[in-house]
Design a protein that fits this description.
This protein is mostly helical. It is built from 5 helices and no strands.
Amino acid sequence: MSNSPKRALLSALKTIKENGPRNRLTGACHNIDLELMEMKTSDKTAIAVFGLRRDLFAAWPSFSGDIGYPVADPNVLESANLQYTAAFYAKKMWDKRCRYARLRYELIDWMIKELEGDISDGQN
């Protein structure tokens, strides 16, 4: 595996998209971390991925405004943190029948598209 943070993050996101999350009770951040551990990425790459994913979260057009909880349904009054907590307890974090979960998949799809564009443009 390339040591490139963009390639590592892209690989983790594609795995989540294709196979589903390793932990259906947690959000994208934890599942990305689980994939990075499975790929045995270096600490240096994992730290770089952390910053990269933070930047991508903030650039996502539907970003919640909360870097710790980047996904939020804008039609719900509760904060992104409360929406996350509610989805966690309802076990709907990744349930595609739930709008909140569908937004999480949209974020992953958007991040994949952004990273693929960067990598094809030579921005490893």
